[in-house]
Amino acid sequence: MQGVLSGFAVIAVVIGVGYLLGRRGSLGEQGAEVLTRLAFSVAGPALLFTMLAKADLSVLFSARLLVTALSTAAVAGLFVLVSVVRRWGTGRTTIGALCSGYVNSGNLGIPIAAYVLGDASLVAPVLLFQVVLVTPVALTVLDLSGTGEKGTPWQRLLTPLRNPIAVASLCGVVVSAAGWRIPGPLLNPLTLIGGMSVPAALLTFGMSLRGSAAPGRGRDREPVLLSVALKSVGQPLVAWLLARCVFGLHGAPLLDVVVTSALPAAQNLFTYASRYGVAETLARESILLSTVVSVPVLVGVAAVLG
């Protein structure tokens, strides 16, 4: 209980500061856009590179991660299926699918894992899976769909290598796999810059709430409610079924994968939506609602399986 409330309290305070900045206009009319570009093009890539360069890639190969990957694919696939039928478009489909299965494993998952599960490193496999595979694929889809920058066929073929998030992730994986050790004078500035990523994303999210209507009531009502239902209820339920019935997990391992899957949608998804200028309302409202709903869900999961 303490871990859940502590993690949410930290996020709520920073988002609240962002809301006040937006309400007072302290950063000017372009403040949110500048923070978005900073997080997407500079701070985010620096954070991902420094994290992956020091990561133990062997954690990617485990039953727990396979459960998370399959549950993510299941709920994202269901959103895509409904979206195709409803004709919501590629941009909204991609962002909505991310909001349905991309968990907040960083700034919220780490404290919750530390307090609830007793080991912050348990979120590392999920974090790596999302950074190494899910994010590059989703951003490449946005680029190739015409949402991102256009170019020649050759340039579009090399789209993943033109995306700062994907490039930084790939470079970090290469450094880790090769066993290279980056000297402190090179790594420390990147670590310092990367430290801006999470605060910038949360502040931008808070600024976006100024003047926004109550979530789940506008033109994006259907995709918002669907993504929140899939994220908050569908993914942890699918994870529990897979872990319990397919992989035979019990006790602590079962609790680990269900708690991880019950985490809300990550705030950096709004950064991606803002950067590409697509489905920003969907991302903002899905993140906000899933974060609120995840509190009783996480408390319930910890009480039942803990």
What are the key terms here?
306 residues, mainly alpha, Na+/H+ antiporter like fold, globular
Number of helices: 14
Q: Specify the helix fraction band.
A: over 70%
Residue share in β-strands: under 5%
Which CATH architecture?
A: Up-down Bundle
In round numbers, the mean pLDDT is 83
Brief overview:
This protein is mainly alpha-helical and 306 residues long.
Write the layout of secondary structure elements.
Blueprint: H1 2-24, H2 31-53, H3 63-86, H4 90-101, H5 109-117, H6 124-144, H7 153-157, H8 164-178, H9 184-194, H10 197-208, H11 221-246, H12 251-261, H13 268-276, H14 280-305
Helix pairs in contact: 1-5, 1-10, 2-8, 2-9, 2-10, 2-13, 3-4, 3-11, 3-12, 4-6, 4-11, 4-14, 6-8, 11-12, 11-14, 12-14, 13-14
Question: Could you describe the 3D structure shown?
Answer:
The protein has 306 residues and is mostly helical. The protein has one domain (2-305): Na+/H+ antiporter like fold, CATH 1.20.1530. 74% of the residues lie in helices and 0% in strands. It contains 14 helices and no strands. Helix 3 packs antiparallel against helix 4 (90-101).
